[in-house]
Amino acid sequence: MRKFVIDTSSLIDLEKYYPYNVFPSLWEFLFEMFDEGKLFSVNEAYEELKDSQEVWKDYKKCFRDLTDEETEYLSEIMTLDKFESFRYRGFKKTNGGPWADPYLVACGIADDSITVVSQESSRKHPHSIIPYVCGEYNVPCIKFLDFLKQNDFKL
Q1: Using CA atoms, how far apart are residues 52 and 27, in angstroms rounded to an integer?
Q2: How far is CA 24 from CA 5, 14, 15, 84, 150, in A?
Q3: Which of 4, 77, 95, 127 has a CA-to-CA distance to 84 between 20 and 30 Å?
Q4: Contact of 121 with 133, CB cutoff 8 Å
């Protein structure tokens, strides 16, 4: 079964551009994916959603800790020189607060049935974003719209 780990950026865009009261079928589809275990995220993403936890409080169980194997990959990401700009951007972006990005990638490295879903893109600093790190580990990384297409969602 293909699984998807979703980044905070996708969840924030979901709330901003596809509000529940306008797109209820989209939200029901996502909640069903969460309930079936096909979609999840990490606790750090839940913490990044501090302004939206009213929306996600009933789905806190779908934001999880890393496994031991994932934690080993997280350590690797956080120490390898080639990811220095990725780490720098993360620390700068969060001011020392929660930062889910390397946790998401670690999930995808540890389990080849996982695809990372992220809205991140940067032409200016391409080595500082999730898709770059995913690419270095051959972890599939897709945009939210591609996630919907791959899962045959239709309005």
Answers
A1: 15
A2: 21, 11, 11, 40, 19
A3: 4
A4: no
Tens-digit pLDDT profile for residues 45-79? 999 988 776 788 888 899 999 999 999 999 999 99
Q: Please tell me the distance from the alpha carbon of residue 45 to that of residue 64, in angstroms, as a whole number.
A: 9
> Which residue from 17, 11, 50 is spatially nearest to 31, judged by alpha carbons?
11
**DSSP secondary structure code for residue 67 in this structure:** P
Tokens 């302004």 — which residue?
51
Q: What is the largest CA-CA distance in the chain?
A: 45
C-beta separation of 129 from 121 below 8 A: yes
Q: How do beta strands 63-64 and 3-6 pair?
A: unpaired
Cα 105 to Cα 16, 82, 99, 100, 123: the distances in Å are 24, 15, 12, 9, 20
| Contact between 47 and 103 (Cβ < 8 Å) | no
- Please report, as a single letter, which amino acid is at residue 36: E
